[in-house]
Design goal:
The structure is a single chain. By secondary structure, this protein is an alpha/beta fold. The chain is 35% helix and 26% strand. The strands form 2 sheets. Strands 6-7-8-3-9-10 form a 6-stranded mixed β-sheet, sandwiched between helices. Strands 2-1-4-5 form a 4-stranded antiparallel β-sheet, with helices on one face. Helix 6 links the parallel strand 7 and strand 8. Helix 3 crosses helix 4. The longest helix has 18 residues.
Length: 221
């Protein structure tokens, strides 16, 4: 994977009553094989940063680029399908698909055979502590923490070069949180994946290779 580079990135939210600067001229390069934690108070721009990296939105000025590919010049749906996996705070599991079907979905969508997708899904679900008896349950039949782990397994199974996670340990107890952090860190180091996690959890930040602190839309030096 080439470097993920943000160059003088700014983003502003506008409403009828106010204008809020979420990001104000951020420049930073993320490298493969590293586990990053993005920290900061609520409203500091953390989730906006993830959205721009994922191509869910475009910066109002500046550029987000994967190597030579700038997000305003490429197919951003294809970007998320092939290069970037996102673990959303809202999880975004498909309610009518079982746990294993949720994990299989992005792989099958990319043309991977059902057999291979199922084998990979089983491995990833087991790696996050979802045992076989729960593989065929709908999300509504799982606890909040179990749903969180299914969403993480889906991102891991996609085998993309970048994994973005918005508070991935938010619904987990301390033991499962530690396991997930260790899993993400090992993924970064052993499979050369760039893992970027937004977190309020000091234990997650302490485990990161690099910590980026945002304050009022800027990187705190």
């Amino acid at each position: 994977m080439d470097k993920l580079t943000l160059n003088d990135v700014s983003y502003t939210y506008k409403s009828k009553y106010q204008t809020v600067s979420a990001l104000a001229g951020i420049s930073y390069s993320f490298e493969p094989g590293k586990f990053y934690a993005v920290v900061g108070k609520s409203g500091s721009g953390k989730t906006t940063l993830l959205s721009l990296i994922a191509g869910l939105d475009l910066p109002m000025s500046g550029t987000v680029a994967f190597g030579e590919m700038e997000t305003d010049k490429i197919d951003r749906d294809k970007l998320r399908l092939e290069h970037v996996s996102v673990i959303y705070q809202s999880l975004n599991l498909f309610p009518l698909l079982t746990a294993i079907e949720n994990v299989m979905f992005p792989m099958e969508y990319r043309g991977i055979s059902k057999k291979e997708a199922e084998e990979t899904a089983i491995k990833r679900l087991e790696s996050v502590g979802i045992d076989s008896e729960k593989h065929h349950r709908l999300p509504s039949m799982l606890s909040g923490g179990e749903q969180q782990r299914v969403a993480i397994a889906r991102a891991l199974a996609a085998k993309t070069e970048i994994i973005l996670a918005d508070e991935p340990t938010g619904n987990l107890d301390s033991e499962n949180s530690a396991n997930i952090v260790e899993l993400l860190k090992n993924l970064a180091h052993s499979e050369n994946v760039c893992v970027i996690v937004v977190t309020h959890d000091p234990d997650v930040a302490q485990s990161a290779d690099l910590v980026i602190e945002l304050l009022d839309g800027k990187i705190k030096s």
